[in-house]
Amino acid sequence: MFYVYYSESGDLLSVTNENKSDDPHLVIDKDLYVDFVSGKCNLVDYYVLLSPEAPPKFLRKDETENFDVDKSIHEIKRLDKITGYDPLSFYIFQDKKKEKWQGKAHISGLVESRIINNKYLSQFKKVYVTEENNPNILLGQLTIDMKKFTNKKLFDIETDDARLVTLDKISLYCPVNDENFYHIVRK
Fold first, then answer.
1. Bridge partner residues of 12 (DSSP)
2. Secondary structure (3-state) at 169
3. The pLDDT value given to residue 98
4. What is the pTM of this model?
5. CA dihedral defined by 173, 136, 186, 102, rounded to 10 degrees?
6. Can you spell out the DSSP letters for 4-16?
7. Chain-centre distance of CA 101, in angstroms?
8. Cα-flanking dihedrals φ and ψ of residue 38, to 5°?
9. What's the confidence (pLDDT) of residue 179?
10. Does 79 lie in the same domain as 113?
11. Which residues contact 84 (CB under 8 A, 6 or more apart)?
């Protein structure tokens, strides 16, 4: 059997053909092992996706660039209020009083590492503003710098139409892999 060892943040540490310790590891196939030891593949181009809800998953860092957008755009769940921040989620605030779109998260070190290391999450994310429950009627879009979520502070989100923040009866949609977004309206 062949093994890949990884850190608590999901970074790959080594590959081996023997199970040398109780450190976190995954079993890999012989072909991938040979690719690593021959230099065809580099450890820094891969990571292990760690999640409390699922078993560890071995991924190439740029693998998410190939995801199918048509199957991956979902409506962002709207919350009336939040009592605390989930360390695995991102929050988008529609502040009608300040007339600003804002974002905030209190993400865990694991999620922060994924944002920094994963090309998909380290980009700017487009969030589509539509008529309520109707993704076919686009009203505008928001552009979010995902790295700003790592600061754990409220930050402003860019929009292509400042009037969108004052609208009622809207829904937000965005492409997602396994991250959670929430939409909170402040009046």
1. 6
2. coil
3. 95
4. 0.66
5. 40
6. EEE-TTSBEEEEE
7. 19
8. -85, -10
9. 79
10. yes
11. none
Q: Count of alpha carbons within 13 Å of 91, Cβ hemisphere only? A: 23
**DSSP structure class, residue 160:** S
Show the DSSP H helices in 7-124 as ranges. 30-38, 69-72, 109-117
Answer whether 144's CB lies under 8 Å from 157's CB.
yes
Task: Report the C-alpha gap between 101 and 98 in whole angstroms.
Answer: 9
Tens-place pLDDT, residues 47-81: 887 776 678 888 787 665 445 555 578 899 999 88
Q: Which of 39, 60, 81 is the last residue of a domain?
A: 60
**Full domain range(s) for residue 46:** 2-60
Q: Which residues contact 36 (CB under 8 A, 6 or more apart)?
A: 4, 15, 42, 43
**Alpha helix segments (H runs only) across the chain:** 30-38, 69-72, 109-117
Per-residue pLDDT, 120: 56
Q: Are residues 77 and 166 in the same domain?
A: yes
Tokens of 119: 């090309």
Place of tokens 């009608």: 96
Strand order in the sheet with 12-16: 12-16, 2-6, 25-28
Measured in residues, the chain has a length of: 187
